[in-house]
Amino acid sequence: MSTLTERTTPVEAAPEVKALHRQMQRRQRRSRLTTYLVGILIALWILVPIFFIASMALTTQATVRAYPKGVLPFIPFSLDTMRFFLNSYGILPGIRNSIIVALLTLALSTIIAAPAGYALSRYIFPGRDFFRLSILAVRAFPIVILAIPLAVVFISIGMFDTIYSLALMHTALTLPTAVLVIGSVFASIPYELEEAAQVFGCTPVQAFRHVVLPLVLPGIAAAAIFTFVMSWNEVFAASVLTIQNRTLPAQVLATLSYSSEPYQFAGGFFMMVPSLIFIFIIRRYLFNMWGQVSK
Amino acid sequence: MSEIKIENVTKRFGNFVAVDDVSLTVKDREFMVLLGPSGCGKTTLLRAVAGLGMADEGRICIGDQDITYLPPRERNISMVFQSYAIFPHMTVFDNIAFGLKMNKVGEKETKERVHQAAELLHIEQLLDRYPDKMSGGQRQRVAVARAIAMESRVLLMDEPLSNLDALLRLEMRAELKRLLRELKATTIYVTHDQIEALSMGDRIAVMKEGAIHQVDEPSAVYDRPANQFVGSFIGNPPMNFLTGEVNRENGEVAVTVGDFMLRPEPKMQSALREYVDDKIVLGIRAENMEALTTPADDAVKVRVIVVEPLGSQNLLTVNIGDDIVKVATHPTFPVMPDGDIWLRFPADKIRWIDRESQRVLYV
Amino acid sequence: MNNRRRWTPYLLLLPTVLFLALFFLYPMVQALKLSVWSENTILALKDEADRESGSAGRLPRGTTVTILDREGNLIPPDESDTTAFLTERWFYVRGDSVEGETIEGWTSDSRIRVREEAADGTPLMGTVRRVLGSGADPLTRLYTEADDDSPLAGQMEANTEVSIVDLAILEVWYQVQGTVDDETVTGWAPSRFIQAFEGGDQGRVDRGNAGEFTMDHIRRMVQNRFFWPALRTTVLLMVIIIPIQFVLAIIMALVIQARLRGNNWLLYIFAIPLGVSDLAVGIVWFAIFTQNGFLNSILDGIGLIAGPRPYLTASTRGWIIFAIVLAEVWRATSIVMIIVVSGLQAISQEVLEAAELFGATLWQRVRHVILPLLKPSLQVALILRTILALQVFAVVVALSGGDIVTVLANETYRQYVELRNPNLAAAYAGLILVMSMVSAMIYLRLVRTQEEAGL
Prior knowledge:
The structure holds 3 protein chains of 3 kinds.
Chain A: H1 15-57, H2 61-65, H3 80-86, H4 91-122, H5 128-140, H6 147-156, H7 163-187, H8 191-199, H9 204-233, H10 236-241, H11 248-255, H12 261-281, H13 286-290
Chain B: E1 4-13, E2 16-26, E3 31-35, H1 42-50, E4 57-62, E5 65-66, E6 77-80, H2 92-102, H3 107-120, H4 136-149, E7 154-158, H5 166-183, E8 186-191, H6 194-200, E9 203-208, E10 211-216, H7 218-223, H8 228-233, E11 240-249, E12 252-257, E13 260-262, H9 269-273, E14 279-284, E15 290-292, E16 299-309, E17 314-320, E18 323-329, E19 340-344, E20 351-353, E21 360-361
Parallel strand pairs in B: 3-8, 3-9, 6-7, 7-8
Antiparallel strand pairs in B: 1-2, 1-4, 4-5, 9-10, 11-12, 11-14, 12-13, 14-20, 15-19, 16-17, 16-19, 17-18, 20-21
Helix pairs in contact in B: 2-3, 2-4, 3-4
Chain C: H1 2-35, E1 37-46, E2 55-60, E3 64-74, E4 87-96, E5 102-108, E6 112-117, E7 123-128, E8 140-143, E9 152-156, E10 161-180, E11 183-190, E12 194-196, E13 202-205, E14 210-213, H2 216-223, H3 227-257, H4 263-271, H5 278-289, H6 294-301, H7 317-345, H8 349-357, H9 362-390, H10 394-400, H11 408-418, H12 422-452
Antiparallel strand pairs in C: 1-2, 1-14, 3-10, 3-13, 4-5, 4-10, 6-7, 7-10, 8-9, 10-11, 12-13
Helix pairs in contact in C: 1-12, 2-12, 3-7, 3-9, 5-7, 5-10, 7-9, 7-10, 8-9, 9-12, 11-12
């Protein structure tokens, strides 16, 4: 005879089983708490140094030089140190150069990498795996070191000490990453969407523009931002390839040994800020960027 | 003796109650199918038995042992996962041997049992291969072999056939049934496919929204559903439901559907008497109606909307009053869309359903 | 259509390939070449004062030579800048010969006084100069070619009026004799490579016209007093930092994988160092470890020390290493974490459950399932980290000034930027390249043999 589950008086588990359950729950809670604690400790380990430098950069120069440093940050709060740094010799041009180089790098590497990324994600062709592996290998390589021979070459063709040559170098640095990230972004858009658009009357180019492009734009923007950050941060090639037209990190590095602490701390903080913002913007794409290296 | 006894088990995820005070007993060596639509809590219940998601309340016993809160490895169970969960870095042999190694079974016996399991599933030739190049059907066999090599008292299966294509599924269904009959392990088999459930299970537990609605043998679940949900969920096409009105005629209860009058079985009379002057739902399966090309006294004239030839039968869609009804006929039954036919309702095939509780009335 | 599709991917890849060939492959080859090649150290002498003639021997830069003879020689048309070396001009002139006939021929511009020039300075008319000196031939010779070894065209008397038809600029070649390795070599070379001394019959090889393979740069690199400290420190940092980073990164990854509430924030915070410049990181840790920095302030504040202690000085190298380790761990653990997290995420939850269900304890699950499945990720992270560790630079400079503690990349930088020695810098760069390649290959080999051994 068919039955429907009736609400009966609930069966209680035996006391020892219940105790076991309670113990398990306790252990689970404790392990969750431990995980939290570890996570927060690591977060502090990362945040506290940033907090130190921020509090140094946003106070008076006298406070920066003082010892011992105050426990309370930002007291007195002042833009004095920042202003001093920004008005130092070579800083404003350096910032301008850094931005130009980073923007050029962003534009160049995105324009060059986008078709390659598309090809990697959309076509099966002989040599595809070889290309992928080569790109992976190139990315792992100490590209920055190549600034030395490049400098020699640039001198011989009269392109030394220009921000354009530096942008070319930085593009070489960011290109492999950009190709892989953009490739993975394209790969996340099913090809069926493009086909569907073509079935509904688009040319392949229109299908790309109206269907694929809007979908991949955020991912490509993230890749572009990352190339900007890489270029903004890069100091070795910038120092080797430029003398008069230094970027910000190159300028700070060149004057580091004889500059004052307010200058150094403000410089360190200033260089850090764009990265903090940009990494926040592209945090969703971090795994696209690095996760796939192992595949 | 490895009877599985699930008693008043409740499992919540936050505020969502996935399994709501469920009790179920799976007899020793029984093949129990947990059947229900996705999200009904059947997998959650299975995982509670497996120890992969502990029950919040209630008790689960295997044999005489309370296993409610034991870690999975201490439960003496084995399982086939929906995605097979084959270890990609191990050969087929190592996959099948994994559980035995973890349980410190001797090398010789491990080898024997692996080969035995592989033989049962016809995958001896795959033992040295890695799973990444294997087809879905082959992986499935490995997953089953790994589970049966454990020779555990309880075998759990979580939609093991759902990732196979239709033809392969048909083949594996028969093979699994044969295999499980040989093994005689107590089995809980989760599926959302009612055909699988009907064809394989010793008994079926139909679940919906965290509760079990009926536990019975396949034929009973099919023929005598406990409520409207079970009737509508099991069978293809599902049971037809019509709304009728209960009247009293000459001291007997009769039910009108549209302008047609039905006479219930005599044994239902007393049960239906309570519904006089009220509405009631009739349930009847498509193949239980008799379709006629000519008028008859006890047949209602209906208009055919759609004719679907399915090879072994023709499925007609007809209008009765406001309700749409599916009727199965012999493939040679002559009918065209927009034609009229006459339907006869055998009284013993009609199930009477309370509109409020949706329960089927039985006496 | 079919054909076009077949080529499309290659066309799309072309810009990337070209760019990397130009700015990755070419400089890489250049770096290796620069480090074992000296440019312009050898002067190749010719049999005759002619580019096409056979080789007469080689003289290294700096050899003292005797100048035996000189001769003008046509300049190759691709060299337009004639200001850089010694030249002479020859005129093709027409005028009356000693015999009274009108003759044409070449003569050196030293024999002709230019009397009339066109507006652009091209000489048009001139007179033959008087030859001074008692024993000298008073006549001026014209040659059929702009070369005083060519056949005579005729002779002219002094003060003959001539029209200047054409002119040629010739480079002076010297016939020199020098001794190298006790062997006397005689031959011709363009004057631009020879610095002639006062008097004109002695000189030295100023620069060469050919390069040669040399171990000089590498030898000088190895002998440099900063080389071994730099190599030692680089390797030391690698050995200390990488294990710490892996342990920390795995812990971070497990915290992220626990999917606690606020997970997204934790992930962002953990990922911050990924985007921070190494120079900025160096400065941050400098702010902590400098004498009036945060470490001393805090230790002083809680009474552990009395008065600030120095950490980043020549006498506290250990502290500098310690600070560099902290800074690098702070900076570069995130990337390992990201790789490990995505490796963990690629492991199917059901596979882990299956392992648990079939009897594996937590340790057995880690040992038999998680680690083997994570191995490719860990391996990639290890290669990446090793290669990045070889490049550690700005952090070291910021914390040590680049002197007290130095690393290979810093030496590369110093050789190029401060000491203006591209070859030595390239030698360092080449060393880093080779070490990167070798370590990558060792890892891959290790992993392969492990797999063969059935681990």
